[in-house]
Write a structure and sequence with these properties.
By secondary structure, this protein is of the alpha+beta class. The chain has helices at 2-19, 60-72, and strands spanning 39-41, 54-57, 92-97, 99-102, 105-115, 119-129, 135-138, 142-145, 152-155. The chain has 2 helices and 9 strands.
Amino acid sequence: MKNMYLTFLLSFAILTISCGDKKIQRPTEPNMTNYSTSYSKYNILPCFGQIEGDYVIKTQDEFQALAEKMLENNVMGNCEISDLPTIDFTNYNLLGTHQCGSGCETHFDKSLFVEETNILHYSVKVREIGACEPWRCSMNWILVDRIPEKMEVRFN
């Protein structure tokens, strides 16, 4: 019994010493950039129609052209281009991706992450809850920090 106790004590001491000063390190993503992946949800006035596709809007001219295209798909009554909100494109860009789903509830879960310092991924996962039939779509507009010129944007 005494030998078993000593063996246990010796094994415990060896384990304690061998594991003592080692720090557990979480794996890090290789080549991550310091580009901020925070964003703000952005709502363009509801009278603007929905248009299929993915959009990276970097200038006021692009935003104006998009608004004109959206007005062509207007299903909510009269809108004016003058209703278009102002965005500071020197500091921000606008991203949007048209997604649809059906269900009693439809949620659009947005995520933004950077891969290999030069690829920005914008993903929207559509969650459908219940067996209802309504078809819901969203442009999923988000306002992000200005995207560097060499950074590619991918939509998943």
